[in-house]
Amino acid sequence: MTEESAKLRIEQLTKEINYHNDLYYQKDTSEISDQQFDELLNELIALEKDFPQLKQDDSPTQRVGGTITKNFETVSHKYPMLSLSNTYSQEELRDFDKRVAKGLGEEVYEYICELKFDGVALSLTYENGILKRAVTRGDGEKGDDITTNAKTIRTIPLKLQANGVPNEFEVRGEVFMPLAVFDRLNKEREDIGEVPLANPRNTASGTLKMQDSSVVASRKLDCYLYSLLGENTTTHGEAVKMLEQWGFNVSPTYRLCKNVEEVIQYIEEWEEKRFQLPLETDGIVIKVNNHQQQESLGFTAKSPRWAIAYKYKAENASTRLNSITYQVGRTGAITPVANLEPVLLAGTTVKRASLHNANEIARLDLHLGDLVYVEKGGEIIPKITGVDVSQRDKKSNAVEFITTCPECDTVLIRQEGEAMHYCPNDKGCPPQIKGRVEHFIQRKAMNIDSLGERTIDLLYNEGLLKDPADLYHLTYDQVYNLEGFKDLSTKNLLAGIDQSKEIPFDSVLFALGIRYVGKTVAEKLAKHFLSIDALAGASFEDLIEVPEIGERIAQSVQDFFGDEDNLKLVERLKEAGVKLVLDEEEEVLNSHVLSEKSFVISGVFENFSRDALKEVVKKNGGKLVSGISGKVDYLLAGDKMGPSKLEKAKNLGVQIISEKEFLDMINY
Questions:
Q1: HEC states along 556-624?
Q2: 430-576 falls under which CATH superfamily?
Q3: What is residue 486's three-state secondary structure?
Q4: What's residue 588's pLDDT?
Q5: What is the pLDDT confidence band of residue 417, given thresholds at 50, 70 and 90?
Q6: Domain 3-55 is of which CATH architecture?
Q7: What is the pLDDT of residue 185?
Q8: Collapsing DSSP states into helix, strand and coil, what is residue 139?
Q9: Which residues of the sequence carry a binding annotation for NAD(+) (predicted)?
Q10: Binding residue per annotation — 174?
Q11: What are the residue ranges spanned by the domains of the chain?
Q12: Is 137 annotated to bind ligand?
């Protein structure tokens, strides 16, 4: 291909990809499947690799990251990024309103109310409609240039498609990690033996400062824009609407309020309602709407006089700390849990709270019997935030972290630089043995849904299960004689184990439970080495040559295959017929949760096109069927579907599910 033809094709692909990105992220719809989108993107990546001189700053390939930034340049803000004054009471909010009224004299004024998102403030500069710079708040006067990382956030436009955009302007917003992404990230970290992250806000902040932008892209950060600078507008409300028209991602939760009483109504409305949002919030930002009035009111040394943040008080209560128990995870990590006198908090009765690790216990200076403060903001799991020392029994002793495993009495270890204590008895500690089997059978791994935690306990207690390979040697009589098992349940369990032999190699590799090897890392290793034997024989240097495989993962893989017991486990899995080789043409699936299930898709859907839904079905192991018959498992029914198809499904007893029910099935 000539440079001229490559240039034309790059322009065409860029326009087409930007169009589909805008549909997906701004209009919540899709005209092509994920696979078709990926094909367009991969073609563009290949062309830019062959013709690097043609790569543009606003290329959609910036979204996938890959640039390594060793140091972030410090940049001065054109407009200072000041913080807001905070209040926690309606009385102080009314005092703020009185100061505004006094400052404006007889002028009529109104407020704009916006939810205060708990994320990282970011300033974006656009020139000729193209994103040129993204800078963190820093100290308000100067911040870090993180443009490369910001470009991976798909809701931040790289190039504006709207007409009438000024030559240069600045917008500000909040980068955040959605709660669902944060929860999924922590589950993955726990599953592969890493310490869970503290909260979404700190995780978003740390992610934005990562050196490898491809890792930033994988974290799926999001961003709401809420302020426009460098453009003449009469009111803040007009500016926000302009941002929406230009294609920026603006939260639809803002509201114009005519007076402070309407502001208080807004605050009260969102006090509980905010917990339904996909991100954490901690209050409401109230701004005088008119820009001229903002200028008239001016600033103090630290904050504007025309704006204030109302902060919600975190849900909290005090109760008695009765005891601390210690849980042993699959990797041997020891997690302390506080057992509390039951107390009502945020509408639920709380009996337990997470303590994370020994450092947290020491920080709180906990004594058994303490009256502790328990808090629940947007978090699912309550946490202890402090102790009422004045109520402490002087004879009580400080809590000392255990020194031996609560399950097998092995002396615990704590690696230098790590917060967690570990039980090193991975071959003989019951929770670790059973935890490895539970990990092995999970949906993303071997997907043996006929086997649960209770059955694993029964098999372990009978001496029938010491490692995952033992599953493939179970007999009918051994299972049938377990408590609660009958003929059908026995056959179902053995059939489920037998079917797992067809699970692809990348999922088997994940199922082995190698520390730090999550689902994505397992897929990369499987694709690179193609077989368990090649992976087991790889040198440290071979491993770190694989994209995104660092020294820690490489060392963990080497440690795993350097263990004689693990090599025996692999051999026994081979003998059982488990797939330990990746077929080169084999498609790597997101999951096997829909394995052996057939679907008919009909109608119009809210979040996906029909083609996109078909791809989701296939990516999760399901089969697609064109017509309704008695052999179809599910009819995925959208709006405006044909009545005859619906009637036929009902007559044949085909299960009819909605888009939401389908997404729940795959844990989307």
A1: HHHHHHCCHHHHHHHHHHHHHCCCCECCCCCCCCCCCCCCCCEEEEECECCCCCHHHHHHHHHHCCCEE
A2: 5' to 3' exonuclease, C-terminal subdomain (1.10.150.20)
A3: coil
A4: 58
A5: confident
A6: Orthogonal Bundle (1.10)
A7: 86
A8: coil
A9: 34-38, 83-84, 114, 137, 174, 287, 311
A10: yes
A11: 3-55, 86-311, 315-391, 430-576, 598-665
A12: yes
Give the pair of three-digit tokens for residue 640: 């405006």
Nearest to 430 by CA among 474, 467, 455, 403: 467
Residue 114 in marked binding region: yes
From the list 459, 457, 454, the residue with the least C-alpha distance to 480 is 459
CA 51 to the chain's CA centroid: 35
Check whether 37 is labelled as a binding-site residue. Answer: yes
Query: Containing H/E element for 326?
Result: strand 315-328
State the pLDDT at residue 583. 75
583 is in an annotated binding site: no
Confidence of residue 290 (pLDDT cuts 50, 70, 90): very high
Question: What dihedral angle (degrees, nearest 10) is formed by the CA atoms of 365, 366, 367, 368?
Answer: -170
Helices (H) and strands (E) in the chain, counts: 24, 21
Residues 6+ apart with CB under 8 A from 619: 34, 589, 590, 591
Of 471, 532, 527, nearest in space to 499 by CA: 471
Single out the residue of 611, 600, 592 nearest to residue 666, CA to CA: 592
Residue pLDDT, tens place only, 1-17: 788 888 888 888 888 88
Q: Does the annotation list 471 as a binding residue? A: no
Mean pLDDT calculated for residue range 483-492: 93
Question: Are the beta carbons of 68 and 212 closer than 8 angstroms?
Answer: yes
Residue 549 pLDDT exceeds 90 = no
The residue assigned the tokens 């100067």 is: 142
Tens of pLDDT, residue by residue over 30-62, are 677 666 776 787 788 888 888 888 887 778 777
429 is in an annotated binding site: yes
Burial class from Cβ neighbours inside 10 Å (0-12, 13-18, 19+) for residue 206 reads: middle
Residues with a catalytic annotation lie at 116
The whole-number pLDDT of residue 429 equals 95
Topology of domain 315-391, CATH:
OB fold (Dihydrolipoamide Acetyltransferase, E2P) (2.40.50)
Per-residue pLDDT for 70 more than 80? no
For residue 413, pLDDT over 60 is answered with yes
257 is in an annotated binding site: no
Quickly name the fold that domain 598-665 has: Rossmann fold (3.40.50)
Alpha carbon distance 164, 182 (integer Å):
38
Q: From CA 481, how far away is CA 485, in angstroms rounded?
A: 7
Average pLDDT, the chain: 87
Q: What is the pLDDT of residues 209-218, one digit of tens each?
A: 888 888 888 8
Task: Please state, in angstroms and rounded to a whole number, the distance separating the CA atoms of residues 64 and 60.
Answer: 8
Give the mean model confidence (pLDDT) for residues 486-513. 94
CATH class of 86-311: alpha beta
pLDDT at residue 91, rounded to an integer: 94
More confident residue, 654 or 641: 654
Instruction: Please state which of the ranges 121-130, 190-199, 615-624 shows the lowest mean pLDDT.
Output: 190-199
Q: Which has the closest alpha carbon to 525: 498, 497, 561, 500?
A: 561
Report whether 83 belongs to an annotated binding site: yes
